[in-house]
Amino acid sequence: MPEEPTQRVALLVMGCPKVPVQTSLVLYLSNRMKKAGIRTIIAGTPSARQLIRVADPDGHYTMEMKDLDATIAALAEGTLSVTDSYVFVHNDAGISYAATLESLTKRPVTAIIFGEEAELMTREISFPCTIIAEPAIHNPMPLKRKLEEVAPWDV
Predict the structure, then answer these.
(1) Phi, psi for 12 (deg, rounded to 5)
(2) Nearest alpha carbon to residue 72 among 45, 52, 53
(3) Is 131 helix (H, G, I), strand (E, B) or coil?
């Protein structure tokens, strides 16, 4: 079992960047957590990470970025430990990532569900997690407001 982190370590998980709101919301959440002193790791697919790198080339809003599969392997092997995870979900793969993280970490998982199928994706979750959902595709503001209501950077 990995040693418990001495500080809060949040994992932000991005899948396929097909839906535009994901990138801006990951940058927003990462920035808020960074300002709050929370070590924040962004794990994603290669294309999702590239979008973040292009949007924040000097790392003003982000801290660490890792390959999604390597991050899951590190959690499974016990070489990485996180205190909470935020999984951006717009398809079945996102639900699988959230379930995997809940199972591996036994720590709080928040599923941030977006896109045209948000309602359907919400109904498919059958494991314990916090759900923040909105059928947002291009406009991140409704989900941003919901994130501000729960203010995970203040917990």
Answers:
(1) -105, 120
(2) 45
(3) strand
Please tell me the total count of domains within the chain. 1
Domain annotation covers residue 115: yes
What are the counts of helices (DSSP H) followed by strands (DSSP E) for the chain? 6, 6
Q: How open is the CA angle 56-52-139, to the nearest 5 degrees?
A: 100
Name 62's bridge partners.
none
Q: 42-52, pLDDT tens digit by residue?
A: 999 999 999 99
Please answer whether residues 88 and 21 qualify as being in contact, where contact means their C-beta atoms are separated by less than 8 angstroms: no
What pTM value is reported for the model? 0.93
Domain limits for position 133: 12-154
CATH number, domain of 93, equals 3.40.50.10160
At CB < 8 A and 24+ separation, what contacts does 57-60 make?
Answer: 60/31
Whether residue 5 is contained in a domain is answered as: no
141 in any annotated domain: yes
Which stretches of the chain score pLDDT less than 50? 1
Alpha helices in 4-91 (DSSP H): 21-35, 46-55, 68-77
113 lies in some domain: yes
Calpha distance 60→136 (Å, rounded): 25
